[in-house]
Design a protein that fits this description.
This protein has 417 residues and is an alpha/beta fold. The protein has two domains: 14-182 and 237-309, Alpha-Beta Barrel (TIM Barrel), CATH 3.20.20; 332-414, Beta Barrel (Elongation Factor Tu (Ef-tu), domain 3). The protein is built from ten helices and 21 strands. It has helices at residues 22-30, 54-66, 87-97, 107-116, 133-141, 155-163, 189-194, 246-252, 266-285, 294-297, and strands at 14-18, 35-38, 70-75, 101-104, 122-124, 146-148, 170-178, 212-214, 222-224, 239-241, 256-259, 308-309, 332-342, 347-352, 356-357, 361-365, 371-375, 379-381, 389-390, 396-400, 410-414. Helix 5 links the parallel strand 5 and strand 6 (146-148).
Length: 417
């Protein structure tokens, strides 16, 4: 049984955040990520995200390294023969711009990367399906620095893998975000139904759809599939959330806490990165007596999310399917992002995201975790003229505020329930 007490397994904890584009990369860096993972225009598992051009990847590495942080590039599709001719150029470009590690699924891809760039750090993706210490150790022997373990492991199994693998090998686990109904994300459902291959970054998430039952001799007579009369979403998983259990993850010997969400918004990346950064820092203050403050825990509920669970970490996830619907719980909206502060006029300089009105009560979240309530009773357009609402997406505006907030701070508003 893994407890919150530190053990011989315990190691430093990395907060690893997703970055779907430059805006989300900057959000992750601003709000405390130690490292980011992202995709280029090829070989990545999130074809729906904007991802990074070669020039953007170079800029991302430069921004991260200037802050002493790391960049991991996905190379985790299951490549076909026709893909392999592009791999050498992909690897050399990654090396040239300073990528710190490549995330890999395929063994042949691993071998080719070691051929093209022997010094490139390799992280074996969760899709590799590493569920035992023998596999983890063998990948280390083949040149992998880190194992991103399968999501289907308990804390006890992770602890055993840690004890029976080389201490130099790092262990990474997903701790927050969307979960896949298939084993370690290897799924054929999307490809089978609409010819979009989930193993090549094109998943349409048919596991989130509602389904009906039809008897073959009664065409067009559809019957809902009930699960204890709770609905028809029999494949729909809840979201993962381990923010209350940082101490147990540390005790199991985890090195890196990975947040899912390269297709999620910059607001999501900001808030969830901030929450885990603060949770880890809170743990490090007194590892033996970790107790997460409510103000940190509450942050994970201020983004759009499905109902939360703890996945397989504490055994079989009996409560991790969500049958009511496929939708998200959304109680807060991002209204704007702070770009600067005009000290002379006492004004926040902002860029609009979602509409809010003069007089609305908003909340500011600053990189580093500071929050403040503010009544938006004085808002102005970019030319300083008073306005009754901020309602133009991506427009600049000003808002009276007695104290400065850092660039990148988020302004959000609670939805009416």
């Amino acid at each position: 049984m893994i407890t919150g007490e530190l053990s011989a397994n315990a190691r430093p904890l990395e907060v690893l955040s997703p970055a779907g584009d430059m805006e989300r990369l900057n959000a992750a860096l601003n709000f405390g990520a130690d490292a980011v993972y992202l995709g280029g225009k090829m070989f990545g598992m999130r074809a729906g995200a904007p991802n990074f051009t070669d020039n953007e990847l170079a800029a991302a590495c430069e921004s991260a390294h200037a802050l002493g942080k790391r960049v991991y590039l996905t190379c985790n599709v299951l490549p076909r023969n026709s893909d392999l001719k592009y791999l050498e150029g992909f690897v050399k470009q990654a090396s040239e711009v300073g990528v710190d590690a490549l995330i890999v699924t395929d063994i042949g891809t691993l071998a080719l990367i070691k051929k093209y760039d022997p010094d490139m750090e390799i992280h074996m993706s969760t899709q590799t399906g590493i569920v035992n210490y023998a596999s983890a150790a063998e990948f280390y022997n083949m040149g992998a620095k880190r194992a991103v373990l399968a999501r289907e492991l308990s804390l006890e199994e992770i602890a055993e893998i840690r004890l029976k693998t080389p201490k130099e090998m790092e262990i990474e686990v997903f701790v927050h975000g969307a979960m896949c109904v298939s084993f370690s994300g290897r799924c054929l459902l999307s490809q089978y139904m609409i010819d979009r291959d989930a193993n090549r970054g094109e998943c349409a998430q048919p596991c989130r759809w509602g389904y009906y039952l039809m008897e073959e001799k009664r065409p067009n007579e559809f019957y809902p599939i009930y699960e204890d009369e709770r609905g028809t979403y029999i494949l729909n998983a809840k979201d993962l959330c381990m923010i209350d259990h940082i101490d147990k993850l540390a005790a199991a010997g985890v090195d890196s806490l990975k947040i899912e969400g390269r297709a999620k918004s910059a607001y999501y990346v900001s808030v969830i990165t901030n929450a885990y950064r603060q949770a880890v820092d809170e743990f490090l203050k007194d590892p033996a007596h970790f107790s997460l403050p409510d103000n940190i825990r509450s942050e994970v509920f201020k983004v759009s999310h499905r109902s939360y669970c703890t996945g397989f970490f504490f055994g079989h996830p009996k409560d991790c399917m969500y049958y009511e619907n496929s939708g998200y719980i959304r109680t807060w909206d991002v209204s704007a992002v702070v770009t600067g502060y005009d000290e002379q006029r006492g004004m926040l300089e902002c860029i609009q995201r979602n509409k809010f009105l003069k007089g609305d009560m908003v909340e500011l979240l600053e990189p580093g975790g500071r929050t403040a309530q503010l009544c938006a009773d004085e808002i102005f357009d970019k030319d300083g003229q008073p306005i009754e609402s901020a309602n133009k997406a991506a427009e600049k505006f000003l808002m009276k505020c007695a104290q400065p907030f850092k660039a990148g701070s988020v302004i959000r508003i609670q939805r009416e329930q």
